Amino acid sequence: MWIAEGLIHEKSGISLEETAENYLEDLINWNLVKVEKMRPDGRVKTCRIDDMVRNFCINEARNENFLQEMKRSVNELEPSIAELEKVRRLCIDSNLLNFLYLKPRRWSVRSFVCFSKKEVQLSRNESRAILSAFELLRVLEAKSIKFTTIPHGMYRLVHLKYLTLSVDLSILPHYFSSFFNIQTLIIDTTSHTVEIKANIWKMVQLRHLKINAVTTLPETGKGSKEGETSVHLVQFHQRVAEKKYSKGLAI
C-alpha cells in the first residue's frame, strides 16, 4: 500500500519492495512498530503499534490533512461530510452503512480504507454508492466489505493502484484488464477455484496478485516472444499454488 500511495521512491539497485521493508525495519528498530508475526523466510508478516502511538499518528495525520478517520460520536459521524471537502485519504472502521446513507461524493478522496472488525455486506445499490462517491480512487482496501457481486462500474476506477476485494466469484472477468495502473490485486472469495479470464499480462504495472483459491496463471499469449511477458509479478499467492514458470516472470 505504501508503494501505491507513492510514499516509496525507487533507489538505484533496490526494488520498491526492498525499500519499503527497509523503512519498516527502521520503524521496528526505533520501537515505533512491534512485530507480531514473522514469515518462514524471516521477514515481517504482521506488526502493530501501541494505542498511544496510534492516537498520536491519527491526530498528526488529521492535522496535516494526510488522513481522516471517520468515527461515530453520539448519533452522528465525525467529521461531517461537508468537512471532507479536501480529504485525500479516508479511513472508516465502523458505521460504514451510516456513512453511505449520507450519499457522500468527494472527488478529492484518493484512498478509501475500511477496517471494520465485523464483515459488512453491501447490497448492489450500496456497492454502487462507494464507486460513485470516489471515482478517482487509487487505493481501495475493502476486505471487510462483502460485495454480493463485483460492483457494476468497478472497471471505471482506472486510477486504482491497490485493490483488496472480498466477493463471491469463481471467474476473474475480462474487464479487470482495464485496471492498467493496478500494482496490487487481492481477491478474497469463498469459491474453491477461480478462473482468470482477465489478461493480466496487459496489466503492465501489476506486481502482486493474491487469490485465496486454487487458480493458475493464464498463458502469456501470442503477443509474447519466447515466453517473455510485460508483467513482472513480485508475488503470486494462491491457496494451493501450482508451480508455473515463464521466462521473464517471477513467482
Protein described:
Residues 1-56 form the Disease resistance protein winged helix domain. Keywords: ATP-binding, Nucleotide-binding. InterPro entries: Disease_R_plants, LRR_dom_sf, WHD_DRP. It comes from Sesamum latifolium. With 251 residues, the chain is α/β, with parallel strands linked by helices. Among the domains are: 71-159, no CATH class; 168-251, no CATH class. Helix content is 17%, strand content 25%. The protein is built from 4 helices and 14 strands. Strands 3, 4, 5, 6, 7, 8, 9, 11, 13 and 14 form a 10-stranded mixed sheet that branches. A two-stranded antiparallel ribbon has the order 1-2.
Topology as H/E string? HEEHEEEHEEHEEEEEEE
Number of helices: 4
Helix content: 10-25%
What's the mean pLDDT score?
80
Uncertain runs with pLDDT below 50, 5 residues or more?
222-229, 240-251
Radius of gyration: 19 Å
Q: What distance lies between the first and last C-alpha atoms, to the nearest angstrom?
A: 19 Å
Which term fits the overall shape? globular
Main beta-sheet annotation: 10 strands, mixed
DSSP E strands, number: 14
Coarse structural class? alpha/beta
What share of the residues does DSSP label as strand, in percent?
15-25%
Organism: Sesamum latifolium
Keywords: ATP-binding, Nucleotide-binding
GO biological process, one term: defense response to other organism
Protein name: Late blight resistance proteinR1B-19
